């Protein structure tokens, strides 16, 4: 599958997410690609990988980064993270990588923009019905707080938006409580989101 995709489109970015979980056979393949710039498939065809960019991600050492205070440089834990990386991957594999980049963990201050991205995606689902979501600062702050995790970053946010906003909106639309062309105000209190002044969770009861 990989060789066929690159054979058809030789100029592309190839992502191996959470590569530390990959089978040993995957690393044997990667060693060949990183060393020779090409790979031979099961049918004996050799595919050129020299025009691809291969990106590998890993969560090794993420527990160390998760406990860093906000704003602290990754330099403080880089040695320990790299120790975990070297303990897991074979030296011949690491030596073939052009660069190992350590990313700072996502901080709460970054969540506002990510909330906007998720809300814009939800808004596009409503555009055909000309329904406009209008979130105030309280709603933004609630979603940012509930959707943030020190270890997993913003990954929980999509589920929070779906469970706390998208699903209640869908139910209200089915019940006829929200009509096409309306502007729907969304706020929050200590219990959760408020849609048009009413608890969003109540729509699902």
UniProtKB/TrEMBL annotation:
GO terms for biological process: cellular response to heat. SUPFAM superfamilies: P-loop containing nucleoside triphosphate hydrolases. GO terms for molecular function: ATP binding; ATP hydrolysis activity. Pfam families: AAA_2 (PF07724), ClpB_D2-small (PF10431). Keywords: ATP-binding, Nucleotide-binding. Gene3D superfamilies: 1.10.8.60, P-loop containing nucleotide triphosphate hydrolases. The keyword Nucleotide-binding applies. One of its GO terms (cellular component) is cytoplasm. Residues 106-195 form the Clp ATPase C-terminal domain. SMART domains: ClpB_D2-small. Belongs to the ClpA/ClpB family. This is ATP-dependent chaperone ClpB.
């Amino acid at each position: 599958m990989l060789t066929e995709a690159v054979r058809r489109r030789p100029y592309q970015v190839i992502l191996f997410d959470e590569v530390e979980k990959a089978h040993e056979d995957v690393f044997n393949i990667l060693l060949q690609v990183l060393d020779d710039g090409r790979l031979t498939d099961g049918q004996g065809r050799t595919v050129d990988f020299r025009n691809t960019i291969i990106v590998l991600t890993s969560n090794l050492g993420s527990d160390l980064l998760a406990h860093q205070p906000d704003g602290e440089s990754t330099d403080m834990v880089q040695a320990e993270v790299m120790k975990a990386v070297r303990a897991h991957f074979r030296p011949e594999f690491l030596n073939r990588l052009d660069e190992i980049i350590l990313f700072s963990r996502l901080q709460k201050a970054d969540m506002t923009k990510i909330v906007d991205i998720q809300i814009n995606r939800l808004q596009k689902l409503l555009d055909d019905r000309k329904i406009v979501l209008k979130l105030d600062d309280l709603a933004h702050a609630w979603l940012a707080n509930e959707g943030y995790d020190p270890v997993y970053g913003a990954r929980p946010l999509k589920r929070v938006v779906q469970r706390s906003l998208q699903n209640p909106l869908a139910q209200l639309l089915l019940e006829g409580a929200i009509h096409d062309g309306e502007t729907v105000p969304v706020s929050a209190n200590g219990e959760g989101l408020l849609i048009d002044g009413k608890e969003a969770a109540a729509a699902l009861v």
